[in-house]
Specification:
This protein is α/β, with parallel strands linked by helices. The protein has a single domain, classed as Alpha-Beta Complex (Inosine-uridine Nucleoside N-ribohydrolase, Chain A), CATH 3.90.245.10. It has twelve helices and twelve strands. The strands form three sheets. The protein has an eight-stranded mixed sheet with strand order 3-2-1-4-5-6-12-9, sandwiched between helices. It has a two-stranded antiparallel sheet with strand order 7-8. It has a two-stranded antiparallel ribbon with strand order 10-11. Strand 2, helix 2 and strand 3 form a beta-alpha-beta unit. Helix 4 packs across helix 5. The longest helix has 21 residues. It is globular. About 50% of the residues are buried. The N terminus is likely disordered. The structure holds beta-D-ribofuranose (BDR) and calcium ion (CA). The site of calcium ion has 9 residues, from helix 1.
């Protein structure tokens, strides 16, 4: 019901626009999306969050340079939330927003368009409706929806990482991406567009253990080293908090499009709290249908963790082979 164009066997690649704030897990989400034969990445837009916008944009260009995928256009988006004061997360991702292994300097620049302008242009020119895959605050997506109601029909759906039905991580009630811009999240959840939500309910189960990032390293070559080091960096932060592994949040929003069979999902009505004294930024899910409201989101609640690790190892292997062969 919610998903008219998730790719099936033999289908042409589904067009997507990625939007995020890299961030180690954003970077790995993009590694997964750019390796997926069932997706066509039309462009990437950036938002402030894990680090300020200048840094997330710079990191995006470094990631695409590392991947030798500078053909993908990048546009810088919102430097601040719609209403809220900016929040950044140097404790999680380091001062650069992507601390850890050394990365190349960008071989290209961002386009001159804003994120909304680039998204609008790509939506207009795409041969079929496009999935948006936001893995940061929802500011750019909300701004697009507000500025271009005529383009809603060009959006197949939104597969996002954000929120948590059962808990938060930045406050007891709120997950970071939603807390950064709750007003934007409210616009997205009330948009009426098909939504796939990969929140903490699933992403905190999507953990990489030390043997998993060593499996990534075992792919061999410099690219696999970088991804394994990103995972290791992310692990160290979370391990110190008591996690067994690193919850690799953002790629789950990509998994919802490329391998939905490894997720357990539940359709439900989800509202975003924008006013609460203790729960601003919470995603309130109507788990028992007590509001009588029709579901507005397909919420991922569980994942086959080993299959998830394998998807990422395979993506790293594909990129590594392509990079070693000098092919795009
Ligand atoms: C989300 O917050 C960010 O730090 C991560 O990149 C992820 O998108 C998890 O709460
Ligand atoms: Ca992110």
């Amino acid at each position: 019901m919610i998903d008219p164009s998730t790719p099936g066997a033999g289908a042409s690649p589904v067009p997507v626009i990625l939007d995020g704030d890299p961030g180690h897990d954003d970077a790995i989400a993009w590694v997964l999306a750019l390796a997926a034969p069932t997706l066509e990445v039309l462009g990437i837009t950036t938002v402030g969050g894990n680090a300020p916008l200048e840094k997330t944009t710079y990191n995006t260009l470094r990631i695409l340079t590392l991947l030798d995928r500078t053909d993908v256009p990048v546009a810088a988006g919102a430097s601040r939330p719609l209403v809220a004061e900016p929040i950044v997360a140097p404790s999680v991702h380091g001062e650069s927003g992507l601390d850890g292994p050394e990365l190349p300097e960008p071989a290209v620049q961002a386009v001159q368009e804003t994120a909304v302008e680039l998204m609008a242009r790509l939506l207009r020119s795409a041969s079929r409706p496009v999935w948006l895959v936001p893995t940061g605050a929802l500011t750019n997506v909300a701004a697009l929806l507000l500025a271009h109601p005529e383009l809603h029909a060009r959006i197949a759906g939104i597969s996002l990482m954000g929120g948590g039905i059962q808990r938060g991580n930045w406050t007891p009630a709120a997950e970071f991406n939603i807390l950064v811009d709750p007003e934007a999240a409210k616009i997205v959840f009330e948009s009426g567009l098909p939504l796939k939500m990969a929140g903490l309910d699933v992403t905190e189960r999507a953990q990489f253990l030390p043997e998993d990032f060593e499996a990534v390293r075992a792919v061999g070559g410099p690219f696999a080293e970088v991804v394994a080091d990103w995972l290791h960096f992310f692990y160290e932060f979370h391990h110190a908090l008591g996690y067994a592994g690193a919850p690799v949040h953002d790629p789950v929003a990509v998994v919802a499009l490329i391998a939905p069979e490894i997720l357990q999902t539940q359709e439900m009505f989800v509202q975003v709290e924008t006013a609460g004294q203790y729960a601003r930024g919470a995603t309130i899910g109507d788990v028992y249908g007590s509001t009588g409201r029709a579901p507005n989101a397909e919420v991922a609640m569980g994942i086959d963790r080993e299959a998830y690790v394998e998807l990422i190892v395979t993506a790293v292997r594909r990129h590594s082979e392509r990079l070693a062969g000098g092919k795009r």
